[in-house]
Protein backbone atom coordinates (compact mmCIF):
# COMPACT_ATOMS: atom_id res chain seq x y z
CA UNK A 1 0.00 0.00 0.00
CA UNK A 2 1.42 3.44 -0.87
CA UNK A 3 2.29 5.86 1.93
CA UNK A 4 0.62 7.83 3.32
CA UNK A 5 -2.27 5.42 3.73
CA UNK A 6 -5.53 6.73 2.40
CA UNK A 7 -8.52 6.40 4.67
CA UNK A 8 -11.22 4.66 2.72
CA UNK A 9 -14.62 6.10 3.53
CA UNK A 10 -17.35 3.53 4.26
CA UNK A 11 -20.31 3.79 1.85
CA UNK A 12 -22.57 5.10 4.60
CA UNK A 13 -20.06 7.86 5.37
CA UNK A 14 -19.89 8.84 1.69
CA UNK A 15 -23.70 9.13 1.64
CA UNK A 16 -23.65 11.12 4.89
CA UNK A 17 -21.16 13.56 3.33
CA UNK A 18 -23.54 14.11 0.42
CA UNK A 19 -26.33 14.87 2.89
CA UNK A 20 -23.95 17.14 4.88
CA UNK A 21 -23.09 19.17 1.78
CA UNK A 22 -26.81 19.74 1.20
CA UNK A 23 -27.21 20.85 4.83
CA UNK A 24 -24.24 23.23 4.67
CA UNK A 25 -21.62 21.22 6.59
CA UNK A 26 -18.42 21.07 4.53
CA UNK A 27 -15.59 18.65 5.18
CA UNK A 28 -12.06 20.03 5.76
CA UNK A 29 -9.93 16.89 5.70
CA UNK A 30 -6.90 18.49 7.37
CA UNK A 31 -8.95 20.34 10.00
CA UNK A 32 -10.19 23.91 10.06
CA UNK A 33 -7.80 26.82 9.37
CA UNK A 34 -5.96 27.59 12.59
CA UNK A 35 -6.83 30.91 14.21
CA UNK A 36 -9.41 31.83 11.57
CA UNK A 37 -13.17 31.56 11.64
CA UNK A 38 -14.66 28.73 9.63
CA UNK A 39 -18.09 27.17 9.16
CA UNK A 40 -19.16 24.24 11.29
CA UNK A 41 -17.58 21.28 9.58
CA UNK A 42 -18.13 17.53 9.56
CA UNK A 43 -15.73 15.24 11.32
CA UNK A 44 -12.50 14.62 9.39
CA UNK A 45 -11.82 11.16 7.93
CA UNK A 46 -8.98 10.64 10.43
CA UNK A 47 -11.18 11.45 13.42
CA UNK A 48 -14.02 9.40 11.96
CA UNK A 49 -11.69 6.42 11.55
CA UNK A 50 -10.62 6.89 15.16
CA UNK A 51 -14.27 6.73 16.28
CA UNK A 52 -14.86 3.62 14.21
CA UNK A 53 -11.79 1.90 15.68
CA UNK A 54 -12.82 2.72 19.25
CA UNK A 55 -16.50 1.87 18.95
CA UNK A 56 -15.55 -1.52 17.49
CA UNK A 57 -14.27 -2.48 20.95
CA UNK A 58 -17.74 -2.62 22.50
CA UNK A 59 -19.82 -5.71 21.68
CA UNK A 60 -23.42 -4.93 22.68
CA UNK A 61 -22.16 -1.47 23.52
CA UNK A 62 -24.31 1.46 24.56
CA UNK A 63 -22.96 4.29 22.46
CA UNK A 64 -23.85 7.97 22.65
CA UNK A 65 -23.10 10.99 20.51
CA UNK A 66 -23.81 14.58 21.51
CA UNK A 67 -24.01 16.84 18.46
CA UNK A 68 -25.29 14.80 15.50
CA UNK A 69 -24.84 17.70 13.09
CA UNK A 70 -25.44 16.42 9.58
CA UNK A 71 -24.70 12.85 10.67
CA UNK A 72 -21.20 12.19 9.31
CA UNK A 73 -19.75 11.18 12.68
CA UNK A 74 -22.92 9.15 13.32
CA UNK A 75 -22.21 7.27 10.08
CA UNK A 76 -18.62 6.56 11.20
CA UNK A 77 -19.88 5.25 14.55
CA UNK A 78 -22.45 3.00 12.87
CA UNK A 79 -19.72 1.70 10.53
CA UNK A 80 -17.77 0.35 13.52
CA UNK A 81 -20.55 -0.82 15.81
CA UNK A 82 -20.81 -4.51 16.66
CA UNK A 83 -24.01 -6.62 16.78
CA UNK A 84 -26.45 -5.84 19.62
CA UNK A 85 -25.00 -2.37 20.13
CA UNK A 86 -27.18 0.71 20.22
CA UNK A 87 -26.52 4.37 19.46
CA UNK A 88 -28.30 7.39 20.86
CA UNK A 89 -27.36 10.61 19.07
CA UNK A 90 -28.63 13.92 20.42
CA UNK A 91 -28.95 17.14 18.41
CA UNK A 92 -30.35 20.47 19.59
CA UNK A 93 -31.20 21.82 16.13
CA UNK A 94 -34.64 20.38 15.23
CA UNK A 95 -34.05 20.58 11.46
CA UNK A 96 -30.76 18.71 11.70
CA UNK A 97 -32.27 16.16 14.08
CA UNK A 98 -35.20 15.64 11.68
CA UNK A 99 -32.89 15.21 8.69
CA UNK A 100 -30.76 12.69 10.61
CA UNK A 101 -33.85 10.75 11.72
CA UNK A 102 -34.90 10.27 8.10
CA UNK A 103 -31.37 9.54 6.93
CA UNK A 104 -30.73 6.80 9.52
CA UNK A 105 -34.25 5.37 9.67
CA UNK A 106 -33.17 1.99 8.25
CA UNK A 107 -30.98 1.40 11.34
CA UNK A 108 -33.26 0.09 14.09
CA UNK A 109 -30.47 0.29 16.68
CA UNK A 110 -29.99 4.05 16.18
CA UNK A 111 -32.08 6.70 17.94
CA UNK A 112 -31.72 10.34 16.95
CA UNK A 113 -33.05 12.46 19.80
CA UNK A 114 -33.86 16.15 19.30
CA UNK A 115 -33.01 18.44 22.20
CA UNK A 116 -30.36 19.90 24.44
CA UNK A 117 -28.26 17.01 25.74
CA UNK A 118 -28.34 18.41 29.29
CA UNK A 119 -32.11 17.80 29.38
CA UNK A 120 -32.54 15.08 26.79
CA UNK A 121 -30.14 12.55 28.36
CA UNK A 122 -31.35 12.89 31.94
CA UNK A 123 -32.97 9.48 32.25
CA UNK A 124 -30.20 7.51 30.54
CA UNK A 125 -27.97 4.87 32.14
CA UNK A 126 -24.24 5.59 31.73
CA UNK A 127 -22.90 4.76 28.28
CA UNK A 128 -19.92 2.64 27.22
CA UNK A 129 -18.63 5.26 24.79
CA UNK A 130 -19.55 8.90 24.26
CA UNK A 131 -18.48 11.15 21.40
CA UNK A 132 -19.02 14.66 22.77
CA UNK A 133 -19.09 17.10 19.85
CA UNK A 134 -21.28 20.04 20.91
CA UNK A 135 -20.08 23.31 22.42
CA UNK A 136 -18.54 21.57 25.38
CA UNK A 137 -16.18 24.42 26.20
CA UNK A 138 -19.02 26.49 27.69
CA UNK A 139 -19.92 23.58 29.98
CA UNK A 140 -16.38 22.71 31.03
CA UNK A 141 -15.44 26.26 32.03
CA UNK A 142 -17.16 25.47 35.32
CA UNK A 143 -15.29 22.49 36.81
CA UNK A 144 -18.37 21.76 38.94
CA UNK A 145 -19.81 20.30 35.70
CA UNK A 146 -16.92 17.88 35.19
CA UNK A 147 -18.32 15.04 37.24
CA UNK A 148 -21.69 15.34 35.49
CA UNK A 149 -19.95 14.95 32.11
CA UNK A 150 -17.79 12.08 33.36
CA UNK A 151 -20.82 10.27 34.75
CA UNK A 152 -22.41 10.14 31.29
CA UNK A 153 -20.18 7.06 30.82
CA UNK A 154 -19.69 4.10 33.16
CA UNK A 155 -16.39 3.51 34.91
CA UNK A 156 -14.18 2.08 32.16
CA UNK A 157 -16.23 3.88 29.52
CA UNK A 158 -14.68 6.28 27.03
CA UNK A 159 -15.29 9.93 26.14
CA UNK A 160 -13.92 11.15 22.82
CA UNK A 161 -13.50 14.78 21.78
CA UNK A 162 -12.08 16.00 18.48
CA UNK A 163 -11.12 19.17 16.67
CA UNK A 164 -8.32 20.44 18.93
CA UNK A 165 -5.30 22.33 17.65
CA UNK A 166 -1.83 20.88 18.42
CA UNK A 167 -0.27 23.10 21.09
CA UNK A 168 2.83 23.86 19.02
CA UNK A 169 0.60 25.31 16.28
CA UNK A 170 -1.24 27.70 18.59
CA UNK A 171 -0.92 31.28 17.29
CA UNK A 172 0.95 33.55 19.72
CA UNK A 173 -2.25 35.40 20.62
CA UNK A 174 -3.66 32.16 22.11
CA UNK A 175 -0.77 31.75 24.55
CA UNK A 176 -2.82 32.68 27.64
CA UNK A 177 -5.90 30.70 26.56
CA UNK A 178 -7.15 27.88 28.71
CA UNK A 179 -8.10 24.82 26.71
CA UNK A 180 -11.07 23.42 28.62
CA UNK A 181 -11.28 20.18 26.66
CA UNK A 182 -7.65 19.41 27.56
CA UNK A 183 -8.22 20.50 31.17
CA UNK A 184 -11.14 18.08 31.50
CA UNK A 185 -9.40 15.15 29.82
CA UNK A 186 -5.81 15.58 31.01
CA UNK A 187 -6.11 17.25 34.44
CA UNK A 188 -9.09 15.44 35.90
CA UNK A 189 -8.81 12.82 38.67
CA UNK A 190 -11.86 10.96 37.32
CA UNK A 191 -10.33 10.58 33.87
CA UNK A 192 -7.29 8.88 32.31
CA UNK A 193 -6.91 10.84 29.09
CA UNK A 194 -4.50 11.12 26.21
CA UNK A 195 -4.03 13.33 23.17
CA UNK A 196 -3.90 11.61 19.80
CA UNK A 197 -2.58 13.47 16.77
CA UNK A 198 -4.97 12.68 13.94
CA UNK A 199 -3.69 15.00 11.19
CA UNK A 200 -0.85 17.51 11.10
CA UNK A 201 -3.33 20.19 12.23
CA UNK A 202 -5.67 18.25 14.51
CA UNK A 203 -5.68 16.46 17.83
CA UNK A 204 -8.36 14.31 19.42
CA UNK A 205 -8.69 13.38 23.07
CA UNK A 206 -9.46 9.88 24.27
CA UNK A 207 -10.49 9.60 27.90
CA UNK A 208 -11.41 6.65 30.07
CA UNK A 209 -13.45 7.24 33.21
CA UNK A 210 -11.49 5.65 36.06
CA UNK A 211 -13.89 6.35 38.94
C1 LIG B 1 -19.56 20.26 15.29
S1 LIG B 1 -21.25 20.01 15.00
C2 LIG B 1 -21.40 18.27 14.97
C3 LIG B 1 -20.77 17.64 13.79
C4 LIG B 1 -20.94 16.13 13.73
N1 LIG B 1 -20.76 15.49 15.02
C5 LIG B 1 -19.90 15.57 12.79
O1 LIG B 1 -18.75 15.44 13.25
O2 LIG B 1 -20.18 15.31 11.63
C6 LIG B 1 -21.94 20.35 16.58
C7 LIG B 1 -23.43 20.08 16.67
O3 LIG B 1 -23.82 20.15 18.04
C8 LIG B 1 -25.13 20.67 18.11
N2 LIG B 1 -25.34 21.17 19.49
C9 LIG B 1 -24.90 22.34 20.02
N3 LIG B 1 -25.28 22.44 21.32
C10 LIG B 1 -25.97 21.30 21.61
C11 LIG B 1 -26.62 20.82 22.78
N4 LIG B 1 -26.64 21.55 23.90
N5 LIG B 1 -27.23 19.61 22.74
C12 LIG B 1 -27.24 18.87 21.60
N6 LIG B 1 -26.63 19.29 20.44
C13 LIG B 1 -26.02 20.48 20.44
C14 LIG B 1 -25.11 21.76 17.03
O4 LIG B 1 -26.42 22.09 16.62
C15 LIG B 1 -24.27 21.11 15.93
O5 LIG B 1 -25.08 20.46 14.98
Automatic annotation (TrEMBL):
Record keywords, A-Z:
Methyltransferase, Transferase
Concerning Pfam families, the annotation shows: Methyltransf_24 (PF13578)
Superkingdom of source? Bacteria
Q: Quick one: a GO biological-process term for this protein?
A: methylation
Tell me if Ion transport is a UniProt keyword of this record.
Answer: no
Please name the InterPro entries in this protein's record.
SAM-dependent_MTases_sf
Respond yes or no to whether keyword Transferase is given for this record. Answer: yes
Molecular function GO labels: methyltransferase activity
Against Gene3D superfamilies, the record matches this protein to: Vaccinia Virus protein VP39
Which PANTHER family does the entry link to?
Answer: PUTATIVE (AFU_ORTHOLOGUE AFUA_6G01830)-RELATED (PTHR43167:SF1)
Name it.
O-methyltransferase
